[in-house]
């Protein structure tokens, strides 16, 4: 009976002892980083929208095609726009100053005739006044000559006014009709959806014969072969992220490999729904084959240190305590942390043995 009790006691002691893991601090490198998720995007990637509503009549490109800035992506039915443009062209031609030279020439003839009569009446007035000064003729004749001169002067001024006024009207009508033609031509060009960049067509979101509107995208275009990372970082970590920090990413398409990037832009507004900030990062060396919208996981390196005193993070109690081998809790000063390790700045040496209770 006594032997059985001793055996049970040994088993209990052995069981209790097995619940405690032991380790000691070691000197090695440590890197502190923050986690971010994200996707790969093409440089200058954007969704293409139509400026008008209508029916697609042709799509001259397919996914994977490279395009130049201004190349057509989609053609929308525009018969009404064509007719409006033709009508505006007719109006512009009719209102052109060159098409109304006959009207101007007619008024020029009237001006010339009025000027001839004015000169003639002026000479008659001067002659009549000289005669009157010599007591030849009558005052009534002088007055009649003055009246004829004033009438000719008025007629001449009216002829000039009519000519200048017609010229202004023609110039205004020509400019107005020209602008209407420009507007109509621009509206007509809106029925052809074009690329804004030199790039690659990554997606066509509509089919021939479907309707398009100004609210829904019709295609996705971006630079060919030039990609960057769009990351989402938690608001609790954003204050520690800076431009130029290293980023190490992993992709499902490249299992077991990590690729280096660098933070190039931090957007200064938080997404209220996800409570995260958007960060752009550029590849240091781009993977050989990648595509837009591939998902990734990233670690943004905040700081790193060589030859640091390190313990497993799981051995840390209450953030700044450890359990010594003699079951004594000891306060420590911590430094850098990653997901598995923590730096000890004070309170332990490599000779110390620490313990971690089993969960």
TrEMBL record:
Domain of life: Bacteria
A cellular-component GO term for this protein: cell envelope
Positions of the CusB-like beta-barrel domain: 229-300
Presence of keyword Metal-binding: no
Subcellular location(s) of the protein: Cell envelope
Presence of keyword NADP: no
Keywords on record: Coiled coil
InterPro entries per record: Beta-barrel_RND_2, UPF0194_transport
Name of the protein in question: Multidrug efflux pump subunit AcrA (Membrane-fusion protein)
Organism this protein belongs to: Chitinophaga ginsengisegetis
